[in-house]
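Q: Could you fold this chain for me?
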Amino acid sequence: MLNKFQQTELNVLKEVIKICNKHDLKYYAIGGTCIGAVRHNGFIPWDDDIDIAMPRKDYERFRNKYYKELPKKYKLLDCDNSKSNTFVFSKVHDSTTTMIDKYAVGSPDRFTGAFVDIMPVDGLPDNYREATKLAGKIQLLLQLNILRRQKMRSIDGHYIILKKILKPFVNLFSNYNTFSNLIYKKMSKYKYGSSKYVLFTWRPNKSRPLHRRVFKYSFFKDTIEWPFEDIMIRIPAKYDDYLKQDFGDYMKLPDENNRNSGHDAFIYDMDKPCSYYAKKDREGTLSALLTEGVSHNND
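A: Sure. Below is the predicted structure, expressed as structure tokens.
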């Protein structure tokens, strides 16, 4: 049985799929959503997001034009309409609800409700060594984009002191969108569909650095329909090849201690809009809640 958050995300996905079908936009489930479809015919029970991907051409058509056909409560957030948003992909979210990760506190322009992540997929050079080399450059630009857009007090993780020393210089010699624009420029050089390899510009992590997300285009050339909760969604036709490269033995359930969404969520609230909490953050009261360790959760 789905919780309120998952059900709301599924509703968002249904609306996105309607637009994709109407305008012949290619999409397919990736990440945990693809695993959930194949392994559970729906959400991974402990997951709390939905991830889909679109070839760059379809992605740009969606985010620049067709998303406006969504019901009014569904909003699009990306690195163009949010200066503090460090991701170079888009989120479509239900603005009548709230989902705030701890990293977003202090940046109310990136607050969202229950969401669907939409990743652009780009072509890469046909030579694998050159493809991974470009992926490495993109990884560096992603890190610089994060540093440029983050507020000083939000900097955490590895090399905190070095980041805080570098940030004033990065800010001095760049605009907020300098690095996201550079990423777009580099990733638009190789056309999806005529390239041997492709890349999602997903934020890298320790277990799966960006170069491991250099995939063969053939994995995603075709899609198939697959049950996901009470609907059918598209997944890569060669989902097994894709998921094994990205996740290893994806059909094996993780240990119970590792069954978590991976999000460090501060607030889930299915009853209040994200604008309510954005106002609190601007007033300074949201950070106080975080300091006190207070959170809201609507299951």
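A (continued): The chain has one domain: 4-292.
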